[in-house]
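can u do me a favor
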């Protein structure tokens, strides 16, 4: 049964990952296909990849709020429902296997923190790449593509970044330690780590 659950988790979650990536990277891909310029592309990629070398303090500094209610008011907890490991994915897996296993029931909090950091770094790097591409598109008067890239950036990167920030606050809840499972009032809620399915 566990192997069956794992199979469907990988298949569905990676399917969501691939779908979101294809949809939201599409305008970026189209722009660079039509406006390939080596120097701007290298500069934007360099700025984007530099995120992976930033210290943890950077991510603490750009945390928008220390209150979970701030993110709930932005419906971040609702956006999680349609992400990889989200509510609807778990319901599909439960329907297919008759059983569901949430990530926080199997992994220690320390591992989840590491995952969150990885996802946060990825989406910040991707966000910078999208923003740089959109700005360059504007200079090339590709206004429609620039708009499409900005919208895609919000959906594919900005919202997932906010989801990671919200998850960090959930991990910091009283009663949660790096050696225990969730035992707070929110323990029955699955911690959906990613925002787009990127893993």
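np, heres the sequence
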């Amino acid at each position: 049964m566990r192997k069956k659950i794992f199979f469907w988790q990988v298949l569905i979650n990676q399917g969501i990952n691939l779908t979101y990536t294809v949809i939201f990277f599409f305008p970026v891909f189209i722009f660079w296909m039509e406006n390939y310029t080596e120097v701007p592309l290298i500069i934007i990629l360099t700025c984007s990849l530099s995120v992976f070398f930033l210290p943890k303090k950077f991510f603490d500094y750009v945390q928008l709020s220390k209150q979970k209610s701030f993110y709930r008011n932005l419906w971040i907890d609702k956006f999680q429902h349609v992400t990889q490991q989200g509510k609807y994915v778990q319901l599909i897996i439960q329907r297919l296997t008759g059983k569901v296993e949430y990530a926080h029931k199997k992994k220690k909090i320390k591992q989840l923190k590491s995952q969150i950091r990885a996802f946060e770094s990825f989406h910040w790097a991707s966000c910078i790449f999208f923003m740089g591409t959109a700005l360059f598109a504007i200079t090339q008067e590709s206004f429609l593509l620039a708009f499409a890239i900005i919208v895609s950036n919000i959906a594919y990167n900005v919202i997932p970044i906010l989801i990671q920030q919200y998850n960090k606050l959930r991990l910091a809840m009283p009663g949660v330690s790096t050696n225990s499972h969730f035992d707070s009032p929110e323990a029955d809620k699955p911690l959906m780590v990613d925002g787009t399915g990127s893993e």
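The radius of gyration is 18 Å. hope that helps!!
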